[in-house]
Here is the input.
Amino acid sequence: MDIPPLAGKIAALSLSALPVSYALNHVSALSHPLWVALMSALILSLLFMAVYSLSHGEISYDPLYAVFAVFAFTSVVDLIIALQEDGYVVGFMDFYTKEGEPYLRTAHGVFICYWDGTVHYLLYLAMAGAICRRKRYRNFGLYWLGSFAMSILVFLTGNILGKYSSEIRPAFFLTIPYLLVPCWAGVRVFSQPRAPTCCTANTVQEEQRKGLLQRPADLALVIYLIFAGFFTLFRGLVVLDCPTDSCFVYIYQYEPYLRDPVAYPKVQMLMYMFYVLPFCGLAAYALTFPGCSWLPDWALVFAGAIGQAQFSHMGASMHLRTPFTYRVPEDTWGCFFVCNLLYALGPHLLAYRCLQWPAFFHQPPPSGPIALHKKQH
Here is the structure.
């Protein structure tokens, strides 16, 4: 997978978030939630107009360029928020976290801001750079799509259902486009042609003739997916208040963060159970039986989704903004960390396997009289 160069123009434009946020933080009129929402909408609109005027050619080639440019700006804002909430910087985004979206001050909010300000930011620059040079960015786009969708779905649902439901301000409605963009972006990313592979018909046939026991790496991934599926189901039952002793012990001694009334961890586990659990079963099937050409794409999507989710979940479980009674106990920290880290790494190993050795997932070449006829002509 080729790594596209970063977009210097967007990087420079996104860094304007630093002086803009600092200046707005010292405007006394922004002490009212409605003014915060209106000013935020105005800044994003002006930013979009600036991007459109400076990069009309790129936007004509691929409209997602404008989306990546605006989101790169918001990623820098999110990184500023995270650094400020952890005390590394001061005087930038106090007005927004107090009057705009106070739930960003939670441990979960801080860590999704860290992820957005680092991983998403680099992805935006890479994808925008690929558009500038008319290169493919399909794999980066699929990873971003899964990560972005998981982040916004858990965050918005947790805001509505958790203890911060009474703290929803007008700025909350600025996130509505964030629900629509992944749908549109997903269609465009999936419609892009896949990168060509060097797999010949003979290579595909030879690889697909091998049984699962002859492919030890795939066997290990199938075993991982089975265990990950059980772990996903178990944690889903835990947050649904399953009365068994094992669930009671787990939620009090291993992951008490699942009881936090902010609702983000509960929503996250339910997302896992409803979406990741079926994927584990389907992926195990695709690794066992050849020709499942959908797996490489969806492995990237779920790698992004689970990577973002586990980063936020693990970080929030141990962060000082999480009440002490809901943090991971010191005597079970090692078990918690290893289990959750393996849960995050597995999908990335699956995606890497699918991208590096895709022959097993290609559609099998035609056989019989049709293939013979094609060979003769």
Observations:
- The CA atoms of residues 209 and 290 lie 9 Å apart.
